[in-house]
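User: Working on a comparison across species. This one is NIL domain-containing protein from Candidatus Synechococcus calcipolaris G9. Can you predict its structure so I can line it up against the others?
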Amino acid sequence: MTTDAIDQDNRLNHKKIFLRIDKRYHQEPVISNLVSKFNLRINIASALLTRSWNEDGWFELEIEGTLTQINSALSYLNDLDLEVLKETEEDGW
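Assistant: Here's the predicted structure for NIL domain-containing protein from Candidatus Synechococcus calcipolaris G9:
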């Protein structure tokens, strides 16, 4: 691996995603796991939740981490079969 590749992998990146968390995951710490398992910094920019356990939750998340951390987290969400509606690169928060 070249020095440029190492520097690029260690550089912090920002990504905004819109995430639908299925009602079957209401008791799971999905967003918390993004922080603890992948060492990401997460800002919940907005959320749409109801008191009903019969509905999904919608979140706009701003994520900060290395490309490897972010890609691993997105794979985790995909493995859970959660819908990531949009991914955008962000210059800053």
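For your comparison, note: Helices lie at 3-10, 30-38, 67-79.

User: Helpful, thanks.
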